[in-house]
Amino acid sequence: MERTRLIQIGFIVLLAICAAQAGWWLLDQVLDTRANRAAIEEHLLRDRQVARMLLDQGADPAEVEALFDELIFRPGGEVHIDPDHLAALHEQGRRRLSRYAWEGAFFLGVLLSGIVVLWRTLGEEALLRRRQQNFLAAVGHELKSPLASIRLAAETLKLRDPPAERRQKLLGRVLANLYRVEAMVRNLLDAARLDEGRLHLAPERVVLARAARNALTGAEDRLDAAGAELSVEVPEELEVLADPAAVETVIGNLVDNARKAVARAGGGRIEVRARRRGRRVEIEVRDEGVGFAPSLAPRLFDKFYRPGDEMRRSGEGSGLGLYIVRRLQRLAGGGIEAHSDGPGHGASFTAWWPAAGGQR
Ligand SMILES: Nc1ncnc2c1ncn2[C@@H]1O[C@H](COP(=O)(O)OP(=O)(O)OP(=O)(O)O)[C@@H](O)[C@H]1O
Ligand SMILES: [Mg+2]
Fold first, then answer.
1. Which of the 8 DSSP states describes residue 80?
2. 3-state class of 238 per DSSP?
3. Ligand 1 mean position to 110 CA, how many Å?
4. Rounded to the nearest whole angstrom, what is the distance from the C-alpha of residue 52 to the centroid of ligand 1?
């Protein structure tokens, strides 16, 4: 990686030198053409002087005229530079300058574009590298802390044989942490399959209310622990044309994000609402969580993107969920949008799919 970076920087420097040389060449040609033209004009003036001198000294006018074809000899000994000759000279200079300008501008343009493209590639690579490092830290963290918690609970169960009530609590913790690990692994696999084009969706009529129920099965404890109060209003008659597992993944991810946002805000409501809008059916997950700066909305769907300092981990998550959601929605011919009025004002995510033809 470092070697590629060095080569890229080397090329940028070379391109910059070439651009400077092309600029200098252009300037030099312009100055040279001007100097040439001035020298030729000076030459013509001198020719005129010499012709006059020869005529004054009594030379045969016909012979002098034959010597200087760029001069015009008028009766009475007047000598002028041929205006057509001067015009042709100017035209020639103008054409040369215009050719140099076009060619020079073209080369400069190509070189500068090369510099810009390389520069941007370098920037994008650096960003991706930072995000990947961050992602590895996230994966490590996401796996390490739930596994440690599961191990502790299992050891307590084995060594201490706690009373029934405590045992239930410990088992609850084990399950919650297993869910977290499972969700993480699922996201990783989904993202890998999507990137490799290996995820094949099989669209069919999906009852949205059923998909929502499936997506939320077993989430109660985690929602309770986050202080989240969930309300779901998805009319039974709404049907979408989509892959059922993908619809559940999308709803599950959006509600899970809402849960995390609400937990960070110390609790709040999460509302899931669905409605038909023209040929689409949309579902909105609105929460009273921490929200985000409105300008960040489009970036939340970038791979590995999590707002704030990319190198510092805060809260669970790897930044893959919304990336997967957006990819799935695009494949399904639907879409996803994020909205927040700003930090502290909650957030709302709306996903939509094509409505299945002819509602039940
Ligand atoms: N409802 C929300 N309210 C506030 N911020 C949100 C909300 N949903 C997502 N975000 C922000 O967008 C970021 C990216 O979300 P995404 O689902 O892609 O990743 P994650 O939830 O951090 O990790 P993962 O989903 O892979 O476990 C989150 O880290 C969070 O900062
Ligand atoms: Mg998420």
1. E
2. coil
3. 41
4. 91
Supply the residue whose CA is at minimum distance from atom 1 of ligand 1: 258
Pocket-testing residue among 255, 322, 329, ligand 1, by greatest number of atoms within 8 A of Cβ:
322
Q: What is the pLDDT of residue 323?
A: 94
Is pTM, for the whole model, over 0.90?
Answer: no
Q: How many CA atoms lie within 13 A of 296 on its CB side?
A: 14
Is 275 a residue whose pLDDT tops 80?
A: yes
Q: Alpha-carbon distance 309 to 255, whole Å?
A: 24
287 Cβ inside 6 Å of ligand 1: yes
Average pLDDT over residues 146-151: 93
Verify whether ligand 1 is closer than 6 Å to residue 321 (CB atom).
yes
Angle formed by the axes of helices 321-331 and 244-264, nearest 10°: 150
The Cα–Cα gap between 272 and 274 comes to 7
Helix (H) or strand (E) run with residue 55 in it: helix 2-56
Looking at this protein, which amino acid is placed at residue 178?
L
Strand duo 78-81 + 280-287: pairing? unpaired
The amino acid sitting at 155 is E
Question: Could you tell me how many helices (H) and strands (E) the chain has, helices first?
Answer: 8, 9
> In angstroms, rounded to a whole number, what is the distance separating the alpha carbons of residues 153 and 135?
27
Please indicate whether residue 294, judged by its CB atom, sits closer than 6 Å to ligand 1.
no
User: Taking a C-beta distance cutoff of 8 angstroms, is the pair 205, 247 a contact?
Assistant: no
Q: What angle do CA 128, 133, 135 make, to 5 degrees?
A: 90
Ligand nearest to the CA of 186: 1
